[in-house]
Amino acid sequence: MSELSVILDAAGVVAGAGGLGYAKVRAPRVYWSLVGLPVTWGRFTLSYRSTMDVCGLTVQPSALRAFVTRNVARREVLPVPPKVRRVRGTATGLRVTLRLPAGLEPADLAAASERLRHAWGVHSVTVAETRPGYVELRMTGYDVLRYVRMPRGVRPSGLAVPVALREDGTAFVRDFRAVPMALTLGANNSGKSVYQRNLIAGLARLPVALVGIDCKRGVEQSAYAPRLSALVTTPDDAAALLDVLVKEMESRFDLLSTHGVSDVWELPAEVRPVPVVVLVDEVAELFLISSKKDEERRERIVTALIRLAQMARAVGIHLEVCGQRFGSELGRGATMLRAQLTGRVVHRVNDKQTAEMGLADVAPDAVAVAGLIPAERPGTAVAADSSGGWSKIRTPHTSREQVSAVCHQFAHLVPDFPALDRFRPHVPTTTPAPGPSLVKPRPVTE
Ligand SMILES: Nc1ncnc2c1ncn2[C@@H]1O[C@H](COP(=O)(O)OP(=O)(O)OP(=O)(O)O)[C@@H](O)[C@H]1O
């Protein structure tokens, strides 16, 4: 009898271990919650002081603190690490808020992040300054970009859309008020369209006018027609549409001057014009010309885009430009326009120059990271902006049908916009088969 129970116990242990091993690979989130989190929390608590000490993240205490904490027996004053203010477990990792003592700065912790990662046995450690004097150590227990699941509860609001997951487990939010104009670059099949889909799925739920310029004959954006205020699919129509948008910008500036304000957000809500997001797919199509007679059109388009990129932020018109490359080879005006598009998302690229076009002027440290994105991880990108900060992100995989269904669902949010009426796309009468997001609008999240 006792032999049988030993065998059963052993079988249970093996099955349990096998199950955990399986969960670690196939369901890392479950494994982290059951095993990784308690183990890491314990390891962090037990080794915090010694780890910070060997990583050189301690300082001599102030005179008062030295008096309180001195080792009476040895008459020595021990160096102190940053004070732990809060430890919080999440579905992807562990977050620790630290109060920095005088003499330590966030960059010191960032420089030691590899050593901290090894000491606590986690997948990554990133350091974010949350307010002056405080940093958050964001540890992830596993590679969160392998199977992307957005954090619970993040939703589009205002003019901000969560579009992807950052390496540290937080949402990457495309906030048009903070970064009004942006550029997305990447090689073929790197995930640019899926990035734009996530963006459109979020924007579709907000009170904005969406304008599409898709000179690949509208193959991508025509699916979103029900929620678009305008869609053009040829360079000629794009030139006409951009002229209308420039006129709209000028009349909005007149409105600002009538009310004596400098920004649409300072206007009273009842007169504030609706924000406009212009989504340009494959921007090179607008720059390239095949004959001399196209030159005048190109000039019109480039001038309009540059004027919008330079000034339209204040009147609530935003550009979101997407392309494979965006450099001087596109001709006059290209680099000038690029300099105005300060939000950058660079997917896998085929050459270092493309990574430099996207990142060298805003986040030079990130150029090498973009060059290392593997082809088998489509949707992975480096996101940066003119603040100098950057992060590695990956979008959740979203199909064209899912986003098309969201656009049908929120078609009633298309605002009144008479100036764009002649560019309103034809909307097919058949409703697409509802994707999961139509049945129950999943937050752009888990
Ligand atoms: N986040 C993601 N997760 C998983 N697969 C993805 C992701 N993003 C893109 N893919 C897949 O990678 C492939 C290419 O994606 P996408 O069409 O977005 O690339 P692209 O850069 O727009 O390509 P192109 O320039 O040729 O239009 C598609 O099969 C898509 O399903």
Automatic annotation (TrEMBL):
Domain FtsK as annotated: residue spans: 160-356
Pfam families to which the protein is assigned, alphabetical: FtsK_SpoIIIE (PF01580)
Name used for this protein in its record: FtsK/SpoIIIE domain-containing protein
Residue numbers binding ATP: 186-193
Keywords: ATP-binding, Nucleotide-binding
Region: Disordered, residue numbers: 425-446
InterPro entries: FtsK/SpoIIIE/SftA, FtsK_dom, P-loop_NTPase
SUPFAM superfamilies on file: P-loop containing nucleoside triphosphate hydrolases (SSF52540)
Gene3D superfamilies (alphabetical): P-loop containing nucleotide triphosphate hydrolases
